[in-house]
Design brief:
Elements (H helix, E strand, L loop, with lengths): L1 E2 L2 E2 L1 E4 L8 H9 L9 E7 L7 E7 L4 E2 L3 H13 L7 E6 L2 E10 L2 E8 L4 E2 L6 H4 L4 E6 L3 E6 L6 H9 L9 E7 L5 E7 L3 E3 L3 H13 L6 E6 L2 E7 L4 E3 L2 E3 L4 E5 L12
Parallel strand pairs: 3-4, 5-7, 12-13, 14-16
Antiparallel strand pairs: 1-2, 4-5, 5-6, 7-8, 8-9, 9-20, 10-11, 11-12, 13-14, 14-15, 16-17, 17-20, 18-19
Length: about 270
C-alpha cells in the first residue's frame, strides 16, 4: 500500500506472525532483489485496552520507527476494507502513543483518512540550519519521531544534503530531514529525507512537522497544504477544541488528512 507514494509492505501479523521483522524489512524492502518498499509494517492486536489495533513499523534499513502518518492512514483503510473492523474511528497503538484515525467513506470505501497526530514537541532551543550547514535556516519538531525542517529555495538538495544532516552530531539518534519552500500560492513544497530509508515520496509526520515549523516561523498559518513528491497532504495545527462530522479536534493537536491506496497483494515464503 502507499500514501502519497510513501510505500510500505503491510502484513496482518494477527494471522501471519513475523518472527524477525528487522531481517524481513531489510530483505523485502530491497527494490532489486526483494518486493521493494520504504519499509515493513506489522498490523497487530493492541496490548492495551485503550486501543483497537497496534502498528509496528520497520524502515528499509531494518531499524524500527516510532510512528508514520502515511502508514497509519493505510492501516485504517486496510482494517476497514478487509473486514477486520466496522469502526470508522479507530484507535491505533504506536511506539509514539495512541493515534486516532478518522475514516472518510465514499460508497463504503475509504477515500481518505484524518489522523490525530497528537501535540508537537519542540526542542528547548532552536537548531539553526546555518549553524549546521550553510544555505538556510531550520527548526526541530518532534511528531513522535524527530524532524528537522529546513526552509530553503533549493528543496532538491535533499539527495545530497539529507544524509549528511540525518547523521549530524546535533542529532545523536539521527533525524528525519525536510526541505521546504513556501510557494506563491501559499502551498509548501516539501521534499523528505527519511531516517533509515533515504529520499521518500512522502512522509506524514514530516508533513506535520513542516506545517508546525512554517506556522512557528510565520511563513504560514495554522492550516497548510504540504506538496510532496507523491502528492499533497492537508495539515491543521488546531487552535481550539471543536467537532466536525466524525472528527473531534483538540487544541494544539496536529491533524493530517490524505489518501491511502492498495497496490497489490502477494505471498512470500520465509
Amino acid at each position: 500500500m502507499h500514501g502519497c507514494g510513501n510505500d510500505y509492505i503491510y502484513v496482518n501479523a494477527m494471522s501471519y506472525p513475523v518472527a524477525d521483522a528487522h531481517a524481513c524489512a531489510l530483505m523485502w524492502s530491497d527494490r532489486h532483489t526483494g518486493i521493494g518498499s520504504d519499509g515493513l509494517v506489522l498490523i497487530e492486536r493492541s496490548t492495551l485496552p485503550e486501543a483497537d489495533f497496534s502498528m509496528r513499523i520497520f524502515n528499509a534499513d531494518g531499524s524500527e520507527a516510532m510512528m508514520c502518518g502515511n502508514a497509519s492512514r493505510c492501516i485504517g483503510k486496510y482494517l476497514y476494507e478487509r473486514g477486520l473492523t466496522e469502526k470508522t474511528v479507530i484507535r491505533l497503538l504506536t511506539l509514539a502513543g495512541i493515534k486516532t484515525l478518522y475514516l472518510h467513506l465514499v460508497n463504503h470505501r475509504v477515500e481518505s483518512v484524518t489522523v490525530d497526530m497528537g501535540e508537537p514537541v519542540l526542542a528547548d532551543e532552536r537548531f539553526f540550519y546555518g549553524s549546521l550547514m550553510k544555505g538556510g535556516d531550520g527548526l526541530f519538531v518532534s511528531m513522535g519521531n524527530p524532524h528537522y525542517v529546513v526552509f530553503t529555495d533549493d528543496v532538491d538538495q535533499v539527495s545530497r544534503t539529507g544524509k549528511i544532516l540525518e547523521h549530524h552530531a546535533a542529532f545523536p539518534q539521527r533525524c528525519n530531514i525536510e526541505f521546504a519552500q513556501v510557494l506563491t500560492d501559499g502551498r509548501i513544497r516539501t521534499r523528505v529525507w527519511e531516517r533509515g530509508s533515504g529520499v521518500t515520496m512522502a512522509c506524514g509526520t514530516g508533513a506535520c512537522a513542516t506545517a508546525v515549523a512554517a506556522s512557528l516561523a510565520k511563513r504560514a498559518g495554522r492550516t497548510s497544504h504540504i506538496v510532496m513528491d507523491g502528492g499533497t497532504l492537508d495539515v491543521e495545527w488546531c487552535e481550539q477544541d471543536r467537532s466536525e462530522g466524525i472528527c473531534l479536534y483538540r487544541r494544539n493537536h496536529v491533524y493530517m488528512t490524505g489518501p491511502a491506496q492498495f497496490v497489490f497483494d502477494g505471498e512470500i515464503e520465509l
